[in-house]
Amino acid sequence: MTLPKALRHICKINRDQIYNQLFQLSAKVLQDWFAYKHGLLPGIVSVLHTSGSDLKDHPHVHMIVTGGGLDIETLEVKKLKGYFLTRQRYLANKFRDLVIKKLIYLNSQSKIKLPLKWKSNPEEFARWMKSLRSKQWIVSIQKPLEDLNQIVGYAGRYTKRACISEYKIESISADYISFKYNDYKNTARGESPKQTIKRMHYVKFFDSLMQHVPNKSFRMVRYYGCYTSYYKKDLPVNEKPIGKKEEVELDHSWGEYEELRKMDIQKGKPDPLSCPTCKTQLNFVGLYFTKTKYYDDS
Predict the structure, then answer these.
(1) What is the pLDDT of residues 233-262, one digit of tens each?
(2) DSSP characters for 68-100?
(3) Fewer CB within a 10 Å sphere, N or C end of the chain?
(4) What are the contacts of 290-293 at 24+ separation with CB within 8 A?
(5) Residue spans per domain, the chain
(6) What was the pLDDT predicted at 238?
(7) Order of strands, edge to edge, in the sheet holding 221-225?
């Protein structure tokens, strides 16, 4: 679910506040649909992504939604078959109406900042917000993923990472940086995105990059519905481990990372090769990649 371009300036001056609403209202849309259509409380994993592949401001939430959930009355786990969501346009309209209503309310309570043209004229702001109902908001629904590793891999590519991978940087010359990005605007529907080169002065490049760094302690991944801690006891436990566990003989010397580890400790950071829970020393084994050679990580 994507915040429309018209609201991105307001988002920039109310960053965490608008991101919180983006999380909460997108989850509410899906929970309301599941309650109305299926009588279920779904599980939702939401991941905030604020950039497009060209580093422009593009706040949107990726969501993994269960094909089923807890029965609202009995809390029994039920699985749904087939297409368990609904039309993208329907969900987009519901999301649009919730966001518009919420932002008008927050402004009436002086809980968000506005550009100067609306600061002294809340009625004009409300009229402008309502005019956004004539626009088509973007909600995209992808086909269900059956494989557990696929689902974890999908979410993992949108968490704990920079908004641009180093392999996309083509060149650094003088004061300019060139990088590849997916040009969806000039790609026909249904086709793989075209790769285009963008060239930026290093000051603008780092400005564009740094705007996507979240504020300290801001949660970029959140859980809703039956995935919240309140309902955790009602969910079945998956006993099947993900991936293969390897037994590794631990090396209790400082090892080849001695300088890095001591530097972190001197700065007041925890030892990066010490388990924060049991304090057992960790041993670096290597980097492992899946068999898939390429991911579309745009």
Answers:
(1) 877 766 555 555 444 444 445 666 777 777
(2) EEEETTT--EEE--S--S--HHHHHHHHHHHHH
(3) C
(4) 290/149, 290/153
(5) 5-161+215-234, 164-211, 246-292
(6) 63
(7) 57-65, 43-51, 221-225
